[in-house]
Design a protein that fits this description.
single chain; 2 domains; 8 helices; 14 strands; about 30% helix; elongated
């Protein structure tokens, strides 16, 4: 079953988290755009109708990044966006978990709301999220499809390295979780390829080496796209690996070839 438009749009979202009262406003976003010419504010509804503005109303901007539109919502002094649920945390101090937080959210523009956005759009959104993580006061970056929260510096560094040709940020733009049978499964890869990765228990008995293999395969899958027939690859030590799509094509299972 295809996700509803609202579900797909929410899965494609990212959030910037702040302490209460520290959220950035439109002026801070414009200042950041002035220093980073690859994006700019293309529409500000409050600038065209300032009499409507109130601190209780939602404040938002449309921004363009390389010609692609994104909605930035929850800006100060308006109402915060909901803080996204999170299960996986990367590079964050333990004490952040007990703090009250407020959120600014970023989503692809409405023309992508009916389904999964193309990889090119999600790459640009990851880049824009990394740039916006440089706003003053950002405490964490949430990537909704992975249910992840990352330290701003961690998120910025890993995403910008990927955009420049490095490894896909498998811990941040996706997450890894143990399966009941002892394997590993990705969460959030669907946003980039339409499928999730499942590593067989035989490949994940040693958790660190299993995680390293999963991260390597996540990068390969993002680079090569959806798998619709079995594929044989070589593992880190030259061992044969078999990648097979599941019967419903929602997963790519990995086992020894």
């Amino acid at each position: 079953m295809l996700p509803l438009a609202s579900e797909a749009r929410e899965a494609s979202a990212a959030s910037l988290l702040f302490a209460p009262g520290d959220r950035s406003g439109a002026d801070q976003v414009r200042a950041l755009a002035a220093a980073e010419p690859s994006f700019f504010v293309s529409f500000d509804p409050d600038a065209s109708a300032p009499a409507r503005a109130s601190t209780a109303a939602e404040r938002w901007l449309e921004v363009l990044a390389n010609g692609l539109p994104f909605d930035l919502r929850g800006l100060a002094p308006g109402a915060s966006q909901p803080v996204p649920p999170s299960t996986y945390r990367y590079g964050l101090p333990a004490q952040l978990g007990g703090r009250a937080l407020e959120a600014i959210s970023l989503r692809p523009g409405p023309r992508f709301a009916a389904g999964r956005a193309p990889l090119s759009v999600m790459r640009r959104m990851a880049w824009l999220t990394a740039v916006l993580a440089g706003l003053p006061g950002v405490l964490a970056v949430g990537w909704h499809s992975a249910r992840s929260l990352s330290a701003p510096e961690y998120f910025r560094g890993s995403v910008l390295r990927w955009i420049k040709g490095g490894a896909f940020p498998g811990l941040g733009l996706t997450s890894l979780a143990p399966t009941p049978g002892g394997g590993l499964q990705s969460e959030g890869l669907t946003l980039f390829t339409g499928q999730e990765l499942r590593l067989a228990p035989e490949l994940a008995r040693d958790r660190p080496s299993g995680a390293r293999l999963a991260l390597r395969l996540l990068h390969w899958l993002v680079e090569h796209g959806r798998i619709d027939k079995p594929v044989c690859l070589s593992g880190p030590s030259g061992e044969p690996l078999l990648l097979e799509p599941s019967a419903n094509r929602r997963f790519v299972g990995v086992s020894r070839g």
